[in-house]
Amino acid sequence: xxxxxxxxxxxxxxxxxxxxxxxxxxxxxxxxxxxxxxxxxxxxxxxxxxxxxxxxxxxxxxxxxxxxxxxxxxxxxxxxxxxxxxxxxxxxxxxxxxxxxxxxxxxxxxxxxxxxxxx
Length: 119
Fold this sequence. Notes:
With about 120 residues, the protein is mainly beta. The chain has strands at about 5, 10-15, 20-25, 30-40, 45-50, 60, 70-75, 80-85, 90-100, 110, 115-119. Strands 2, 4, 5, 6, 9, 10 and 11 form a seven-stranded mixed sheet that branches. A four-stranded antiparallel sheet has the order 1-3-8-7, with no helix packed on it. The protein is globular and about 40 Å long.
């Protein structure tokens, strides 16, 4: 299968916005759920949010739900994570992942993209 490939990370200042992209051409089926995770230095990988490919329904953790938005483009087979009002604590490696509806295991992962937010 074609892997998931993230892009769009970088160094920004607190309060800035950034959009991450995930190429999901090998997936993007009606039974797929695409998720975003992040891992800060010295910490475990945390779930950020997800989108159901079939209808675009989304779910976010409370810490980002008012600032982050996940979307998908059916034509381009892309998933996006729009991050607004970034904070230094958002600094992490961000990963795109995929699971199948009804299965809790995230079976496919991207290589990650670094996001650094300076104060």
